[in-house]
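Appendix B. Chain record.
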Amino acid sequence: MASAKKRPYSLSLLSQSSPTAINIGSSGNERTAVSELCSERSGGNTTPSQARTDHSGILINRRTTAKPTRAQNADFSESVIRTILTNQEVIKDQMGILVKLVHQLKRQLLDEEFKKTLTMTLAQRGGTAVKDTVWRMMGYLLTNELARQMNWKGANGKAAFKNLILRGIINEAVRRNRLTATSTDQETELWIKRWLHLAGDRDGGRRARQRTDN
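Structure tokens predicted for this chain:
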């Protein structure tokens, strides 16, 4: 009887000092209590329910960061292609503008070179006075047949000589002649007008007109 009374007291002592001894023959509730007690004594703060919650949270995060769908990839690819095509069109337009500028610059350089060459060529025609110098130059530049289709202002449906680049070239060439270096544009253009006006009388034109009148 004495030993029987001491046994529950011994079990009580074991439950405080060594919980694993109780797990040998204890029920499910007792094992749960012992597990929670062990967790508190070991300093752990995570319960099984919390662990499951944390684990489910990780699964949720993985679902939210899932890979893009095939439709999303297609939309992204289409956007990139559209951007590339747009940039290509912009580059094409810019290249077209640059090509035009190059052609214009080349044409301007050629025009300037042509003007210089023609001016020097006309200046070599010579002449002792403005009239003589201008008429030598005009005869070198134009045939009489072409001159008949022109006048200074372009009246009566003819071409206007004053609008041609030749006007300025002749003015410059006349001044390059040492004997006519002090001539003015007005004086030079006066003799250009006269030369054009007489185009109808040159190369037998006057005689042909006289026969017609008679």
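Further analysis of this model is presented in Appendix C.
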